[in-house]
Design a protein that fits this description.
Residues 103-225 form the MPN domain. This protein is of the alpha+beta class. The chain contains nine helices and five strands.
Length: 225
């Protein structure tokens, strides 16, 4: 059904303005952004397809323009560009929050921020959040790509970047494209190797976050740091 065929009080734009955005479902909010569906498939069906394909709103926000290209109805550039712009706005909003206050006053924000950056990477990447003396975000850098082992992640490079940012502490992060959130023994060993290297320059490792398409896990919360 087209949006214009719905009763006025059921149209998502009118509903949002009358009752506020919290009154709308994820499908309705996404339908507002998409505006139109495709031939034979309305905008609500397209919105449902996107949410189902990428594992809900959080998963969708972790996609890039190339991921969206395979979805029927998003082959053109306009809608893909708009969704990519929403993703970037979400990243910047979360980064602004993390730069304004201590990151561990809102650990869920840290996890969401890392999910947006790393959650849907098709290959493993290793990133570092560099923090100031108040545990506020200075920068996030993806430093290594590919299969991550103690031999492919170089602690010296992490030390160099920490000194460049004059960081007081860091949060390590990497993704598991397989979807598992359980840190491996290799993850634990790598964490302790990096922690020892950074300790030589008085930089603390506050956490190591494992990110997957469906969520994120804190090694500190699991007692593995």
């Amino acid at each position: 059904m087209a949006l214009l065929d719905l009763p006025v009080d059921a149209r998502p734009r009118e509903k949002l303005l009358a009752r506020g955005p919290a009154a709308l479902s994820d499908t309705e909010l996404l339908a507002i952004l998409l505006r139109t569906g495709t031939a034979g498939r309305g905008v609500f069906a397209l919105a449902d397809d996107l949410l189902g394909r990428f594992g809900g709103l959080a998963g969708l926000l972790g996609t890039g323009p190339q991921d969206l290209r395979v979805v029927k109805g998003l082959g053109g550039t306009a809608k893909r560009a708009e969704l990519a712009a929403v993703l970037e706005l979400a990243r910047r909003a979360l980064a602004q929050q993390l730069r304004a206050r201590e990151v561990f006053t809102s650990p869920d924000t840290v996890k969401h921020y890392l999910q947006l950056h790393l959650g849907r990477q098709p290959h493993e990447v290793f990133a570092v959040m560099f923090l100031d003396s108040q545990n506020r975000l200075l920068d996030l850098e993806v430093l290594f790509r590919g299969t991550l082992t103690q031999t492919s992640v170089y602690p010296r490079e992490i030390v160099v970047r920490a000194l460049h940012h004059e960081a007081a502490s860091v949060v390590l992060a990497h993704n598991h494209p397989s979807g598992t959130l359980q840190p491996s023994r290799a993850d634990e060993a790598l964490t302790h190797t990096v922690k020892a290297a950074l300790a030589l320059v008085d930089v603390r490792v506050l956490d190591h976050i494992v990110v997957a398409p469906g969520g994120a896990a804190s090694m500190a919360e699991l007692g593995l740091l």
